[in-house]
Design brief:
817 residues, TIM Barrel, Immunoglobulin-like, eight-stranded antiparallel beta sheet, seven-stranded parallel beta sheet, 46 strands, binds ligand MIG
């Protein structure tokens, strides 16, 4: 976007008065930056210099170089923390804070070679500060050059193989494999609209997964400063001054990571995607189990101006028999965009509205922005000033910047007292019965006419006692707003699971909130982009995300809306949302056949709830994302690494959305194994390209051989069995009340193939009673000759096969297909 376009788009949304505030703010910010900005340091790059001394410490080692200190410390045998100083250590906002049992480690120093090792990992430290990471079998996973310090910045280079796949970094816009690109890690609102290639956007996480044909690793830089990850640069030699680096003297690619401040601290985990996410989940925490309703469909729009609008929309869903789980109130409900206010004229009885909708099974979610309007007659602002809750300038004055309400003050969420105070304000919404809270603009964003739309870097923050400026605190702001909200909801409603939705965040956000991908443009390219965005978020530890269906900023036609809706049915977060001023897009506004198609997918989503809920349980237990790249179960199939036009939901379902206008078939790079067509009887064999049929009403959907897929139907649970062609299989089903913290249960359905028989074995654990009156079995792809229930043969007339309880069902058949 050109500056003029940006300005016009800005004015369209923010209006003339805020346009002026934006201009004057931009001037003020530039002045502050000039007044308080640090002199650009022309400092020469500084290397660690020679190793002068090293020693063992419990769990690792310390290395004293001429110009730097290095500490290696094992948190687990497959998780090592590396800390280079000088530089401030980060406040531990990302970390889940669990205690790690002490690790047996060894320290070797032969005078020539130094390393620390655990059973699963060995880190070699060269004379000049170059590091090498080897797995338990002695395979080199990563080679690092000595880090370089320039002023307060760190520059960190490491080896990058030409065929290496790179994934993660939070919310990205350029597809799944990040190799070859350059990415900034600085949370930023792309001003109401972004598409493929925009960088950075709202939610950055300085962590990535590296895959190589012979193995992979995961690395998390615990550094919240403005930074850059460059996976496209070329170095003449890597480890040129390293003794242990061997003889790689040819031109080689390298990755180059830069942070503008702080200590260079990072965590290294060897292994493939599943293992890495498990360990990373332990380090930064996993997502709590959400309330079950959150996995249903959400309807939203910026521009539902009144309670009447909301009632009408909900009535439309009822009338058209479209299942609806939640409706969102955007900034329209507030008094002049003042947070924690409700406009009594347009929303005269919020508790009444919420209660009426609750009777229809629809939850209400309300938006909150961090900016507090500068208005002496506004209670929140007044209190915030009195209690000293807002971010200040170095002069001691409260900082103000323009956002929706006009000039605003910004709570300093890096201060525990501010988090507590802010959290108390949620009562006005919680008392009205609001079920969930949606946190917007928390990068935090301000309106600017030029330059970055952020707070001036000179703004001060408490950083939980460490104190610092906005450069130190910026990337934590959204994370900590969610921490405040989460803690408030936990305290106010101890019997309920908090549900928060956030636009920004940082490593560990999953402990508090879900994410949506913000203001996507309305285009086919953005539809495609969204897959890589959500997959990379998942590989960065954020299991719950999803796009605005149809894109945020434009008006999709029926076909784009339909294809987007089909794709979003399989996204963790499933919401229709749009910008004010765009065409309305409730499903019925498109007429037929769109209405019938959306109904079909809304119903499919509802049927999938037990499966989705089980994946939510897995995310909580193991840290796995709900949707996964095709390489998740096949990390060595290098041809899958860049595939971002398809994904799996859990391990059972492979989703291959249509991403091209007019297309009625599409091809797919199928991972190895056998795959059943969800819609028909065809079985495909991978690896290889397959062509799938995709009439407008159909999104190609495949089921992995060996899967047992639980679908919830009106009469109970249906188990769809996709017999393994070889080996075994099975499926899990987690159930509980869907809310609160009571008991749960886990039902596991194992499939065992033995000669000409397939056995389904039901294993049960947990206190919660099985929530379905009966189970109906559907066997796909095979014709059973006889069926045995817990040892006795059933008459073959039973169709469908409905059972109350069983231990073991045996299907016998004549020959394999
Ligand atoms: O500057 O609240 O991404 O979902 O509708 C725009 C109005 C502010 C941005 C969010 C979008 C929301 C909109 N918000």
């Amino acid at each position: 976007m050109s500056a003029i376009e940006k300005l016009l788009l800005g004015l369209r949304f923010i209006g003339f008065a805020n346009g002026l505030r934006t201009l004057s703010f931009s001037l003020q910010r530039d002045w502050l930056e000039w007044r308080y900005g640090e002199e650009p340091k022309r400092a020469d790059p500084l290397w660690p210099g020679d190793l002068q001394e090293c020693r063992a410490i419990p769990g690792g080692g310390k290395f004293h170089f001429q110009n730097a200190e290095l500490e290696l410390f094992f948190l687990a045998p497959d998780l090592v923390r590396v800390t280079w100083q000088p530089g401030e250590l980060p406040p531990p906002y990302a970390l889940a804070g669990q205690a790690w049992p002490a690790v047996e480690s060894e320290f070797h120093d032969t005078g020539m070679v130094r390393s620390v090792s655990s059973e699963q990992l060995e880190v070699f430290v060269a004379e000049d500060g170059g590091l090498r990471f080897l797995d338990g079998s002695g395979k080199v996973l990563r080679t690092e050059s000595p880090p370089q310090r320039q002023g307060a910045s760190w520059v960190h280079r490491s080896s990058l193989l030409p065929q290496e796949g790179i994934f993660g970094l939070g919310e990205r816009t350029t597809g799944l494999d990040l190799h070859g690109g350059r990415y900034r890690v600085w949370n930023m609102d792309p001003d109401g609209n972004y598409g493929p290639g925009t960088d950075p956007i709202y939610l950055n996480i300085p962590a990535y997964l590296s895959l190589k044909p012979e193995g992979g690793y995961f690395i998390f830089y615990e550094n919240g400063h403005d930074g850059e990850f460059d996976f496209g640069s070329v170095a003449d030699r890597i480890g040129s001054t390293q003794e242990t680096a061997g003889t790689e003297t040819e031109r080689t690619q390298q990755s180059k990571v830069t942070f503008k401040g702080g200590a260079l601290r990072y965590y290294f985990i060897p292994g493939g995607p599943r293992h890495a996410l498990e360990r990373f989940g332990e380090l930064v925490g996993r997502a709590p189990l959400p309330p079950r309703w959150a996995l249903g469909f959400h309807q939203s729009r910026w521009g539902y101006r009144t309670a009447e609008d909301i009632r009408e929309v909900v009535a439309g869903f009822e009338q058209h028999e479209l299942p609806l789980s939640a409706i969102h109130l955007d900034i329209d409900y507030m008094v002049g965009f003042r947070v924690f206010t409700v406009d009594e004229e347009r929303f005269p009885d919020l508790p009444g509205l919420v209660a009426d909708l609750a009777r229809k099974g629809v939850k209400v979610v309300t938006i909150l922005d961090p900016g507090v309007k500068r208005d002496r007659n506004y209670e929140i602002y007044k209190q915030g000033r009195e209690k000293d809750m807002f971010c200040k300038l170095p002069s001691g004055g409260v900082f103000h910047g323009p956002v929706w309400p006009g000039n605003c003050a910004f709570p300093d969420f890096t201060d525990p007292q501010v988090r507590a105070w802010w959290g108390e304000q949620y009562d006005i919404l919680l008392d009205a019965g609001v079920a969930g809270i949606w946190h917007d603009m928390n990068e935090p964003a301000v309106f600017t006419a030029w330059g970055m739309n952020r707070l001036p870097l000179a703004v001060r923050h408490a950083l939980d006692g460490a104190e610092g400026d906005h450069g130190d605190a910026h990337n934590f702001y959204g994370l900590l707003m969610n921490r405040a909200g989460y803690e408030a909801l936990r305290a106010a409603r101890p019997e309920q699971r908090p549900w928060l939705l956030s636009r920004s965040g940082w490593a560990g956000l999953q402990r508090y909130a879900w994410n949506w991908t913000g203001d996507t443009e309305t285009s086919w390219a953005a539809l495609h982009m969204t897959i890589g965005t959500v997959l990379n978020l998942g590989l960065s530890g954020i299991p719950y995300s999803g796009p605005d269906i149809g894109g945020f900023s434009g008006s999709p036609d029926a076909e784009l809306f339909t294809r987007w809706f089909q794709l979003a049915t399989f996204m963790p977060f499933f919401r229709n949302h749009s910008a004010v001023g765009t065409a309305r897009r409730e499903p019925w506004t498109f007429g037929q056949p769109t209405l019938d198609i959306t109904r079909k997918y809304l119903n499919l989503r509802r049927r999938l709830l037990p499966y989705l809920y089980t994946l939510a349980w897995e995310a909580n237990r193991w840290g796995y994302p709900l949707i996964r790249p095709l390489f998740w179960r096949h990390p060595r199939e290098t041809s899958l690494w860049a595939v971002d036009d398809a994904f799996t939901l859990g391990d059972a379902l492979l989703v291959a959305p249509v991403l091209e206008q007019g297309a009625r078939t599409r091809s797919l790079a199928l991972p190895s194994g056998y795959w059943y067509d969800f819609w028909g009887e065809t079985v495909y064999q991978g690896p290889g390209e397959v062509e799938l049929s995709a009439p407008l009403e159909r999104i190609p959907l495949l089921v992995r051989q060996g899967a047992v897929l639980p679908l919830e139907e009106r009469d109970g649970l249906h188990l769809h069995i996709y017999p393994p062609v070889e080996g075994g299989g099975g499926g899990a089903l987690y159930s509980d009340r869907g809310e609160g913290y009571g008991p749960g249960r886990l039902d596991e359905f194992d499939l065992v193939l033995a000669g000409n028989a397939l056995e389904l074995v039901w294993r049960k654990q947990g206190e919660y009673p099985f929530p379905y009156p009966q189970v109906e079995l559907h066997l796909h792809g095979l014709q059973a000759e006889s069926i045995w229930l817990d040892g006795s043969e059933l008459t073959m007339e039973i169709d469908p096969l409905r059972l109350e309880r069983f231990e073991r069902v045996r299907f016998e058949f004549k020959a394999r297909h």
